[in-house]
Each structure stands twice: as C-alpha cells, then as structure tokens.
C-alpha cells in the first residue's frame, strides 16, 4: 500500500467504480515524462482515497507501437460497458496527439482503439478528454499546443459513437490569452493551454477546467459555458482556482458525495505528487474549502 505522498505522478485522474466500491487513480507515471523512452501508464486502486494498491501496469506498448516517448495524461472513462483511455503520445517526426485505447477492466490492459491519434495528424496536440453531451454525442476536448501556435487553444472534436475516429473538423473553443490571469512562458515565447476537463454542476451549468501559467507558476483555471453545452461560448473566470504551482486537474465526487479537485503539485520532476482538494459548489461556482 502507498499514500499519495509516495506516488510520483502528473496529471492525476480518478475513476470511481460504484460496483466495486473503489477508486482507480491514473496519471503520467514514467519517472521522467519529458525525455527518454516511454514505459507506459500505471494505475492504483483504493477503497478510501488514502491507501493505494499498486502500481498495476494499465498500459504497456506492444512491439511496433508508433510512439516511444512523451506518454502523458491518461484519462479513463466508462462508456457503453467498456473503459476508454485517452492519452497523449509522441514519436520523432510525428506530431504529438491523443490516441484512444480500450479495455474491459479499469486495470487494463489497454489496447489501441483509434488508428493512431484522433487529433489532427499535422497538429501538435495533447490532453484529450471525453465529454458526452446530453443528446449522447461524444466529443473529445483537447489542446492545440502553444509550441506550434504560440497562443495555445482548447478545441472540441466530435467523435464517432464507437469512439474510434473523429467526425468532422476541430472547433475552436477558446485560447489561452482569453483568460485575464494567464501569463506567457519562456520569456514571452507563448501562452500555454493544458489539461481540459468538463464538469457539469448540480444546477446544470457546464464548467471546463484547464491549466496555464501565472507569474511563472502552474495554475488551475476555470471557464464557463454560456450555452450549457460543450461548444460554448466560453467565459473565463478572472482568477484561477489554484495557483500554487499545480494544475492539470479534474473533479470527482466521493461515495460520501464530497466534491474533490485532483491535480498535481508542485510542477517539478521528480517532486510532483497527486493531491485532492475539497471543493464547495454553489450556484454553479466552485471554491476551495
């Protein structure tokens, strides 16, 4: 058993499984995600969010898998009786992108489902997440990376009902500079968008978490859909909800109906750890408890 303080992880994602009365914790788990050969993704399991079994190998690349580096930000979503992993990969001479994988169990093993990245092949992309609209239409929300476009963006791409391919072209939701709190990185080289995650509030409002940098520190921001749908238009909250060098968050509720924000902090390798932060939700607005 391990505690969160003993788990090196970026981009934490929690899947709650009611039929097992437990939680699964995924994330970027390679010791150094920035360089070197990618190993895969591990998953941990817990009944109480304190003591974690694992790591279990959720994904390991088969021989011939197209990507060998930058294994980032796995999310696992239950959909139509199976479990779908959205994860970022890259290879030399190939644009970074989000591929969709599938398994019959939250523990995996996850296998490629989409034909390579579902994001545009000539875009540098990352951090795809699944959102299913109330009419049942699945969308992938992802980031078009600042390293290619300078002012990073968040886009939505409709997926097939089988989640194996894109349908149509990406739709721009917003850019990093739309948020008043975002500062440039690397001496003004660009503006970052990271880690989108959609959350439907109890009053029906739709929020989108995403991350960037403020005064040199990683921070967790929130945008609000004026229409209540994934295509927005999106209105940025003026201040981040967390700005103490942490982000790439998601929101989940416990079996006791407590709302928690999961993110990693600090934003330094190998010090990053997953943390859970209690949230209050009132009138479609979130605040840290």
TrEMBL record:
Pathway: Glycan metabolism; L-arabinan degradation
GO molecular function, one term: hydrolase activity
Keyword annotations from UniProtKB, A to Z: Glycosidase, Hydrolase
Matches recorded under Pfam families: Glyco_hydro_43
Gene3D superfamilies (UniProt xref): Glycosyl hydrolase domain, family 43 (2.115.10.20)
Family designation: Belongs to the glycosyl hydrolase 43 family.
Protein name: Glycoside hydrolase family 43 protein
Organism encoding this protein: Cohnella boryungensis
Highest classification ranks of the organism: Bacteria, Bacillati, Bacillota, Bacilli, Bacillales
């Amino acid at each position: 058993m391990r505690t969160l303080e003993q788990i090196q992880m970026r981009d934490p994602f929690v899947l709650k499984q009611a039929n097992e009365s437990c939680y699964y914790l995924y994330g970027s788990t390679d010791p150094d995600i920035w360089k070197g050969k990618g190993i895969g993704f591990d998953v941990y399991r817990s009944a109480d969010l304190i003591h974690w079994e694992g790591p279990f190998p959720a994904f390991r690349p088969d021989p011939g898998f197209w990507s060998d580096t930058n294994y980032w930000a796995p999310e696992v979503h239950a959909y139509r009786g199976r479990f779908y992993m959205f994860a970022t990969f890259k290879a030399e001479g190939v644009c970074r992108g989000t591929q969709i994988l599938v398994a019959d169990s939250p523990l995996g093993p996850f296998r490629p489902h989409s034909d390579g990245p579902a994001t545009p092949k000539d875009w540098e992309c990352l951090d795809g997440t699944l959102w299913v609209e109330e009419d049942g239409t699945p969308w992938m929300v992802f980031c078009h990376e600042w390293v290619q476009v300078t002012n990073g963006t968040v886009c939505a791409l409709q997926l097939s009902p089988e989640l194996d391919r894109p349908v149509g072209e990406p739709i721009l939701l917003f850019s990093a500079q739309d948020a008043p709190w975002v500062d440039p990185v690397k001496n003004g080289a660009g503006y970052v968008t990271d880690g989108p995650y959609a959350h439907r509030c109890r009053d029906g409002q739709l929020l989108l978490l995403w991350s960037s940098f403020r005064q040199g520190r990683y921070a967790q921001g929130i945008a609000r859909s004026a229409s209540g749908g994934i295509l927005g238009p999106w209105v940025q909250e003026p201040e981040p909800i967390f700005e103490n060098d942490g982000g790439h968050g998601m929101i989940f509720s416990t079996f006791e109906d407590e709302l928690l924000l999961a993110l990693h902090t600090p934003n330094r390798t190998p010090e990053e750890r997953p943390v859970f932060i209690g949230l209050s939700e009132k009138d479609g607005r979130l605040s840290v408890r």
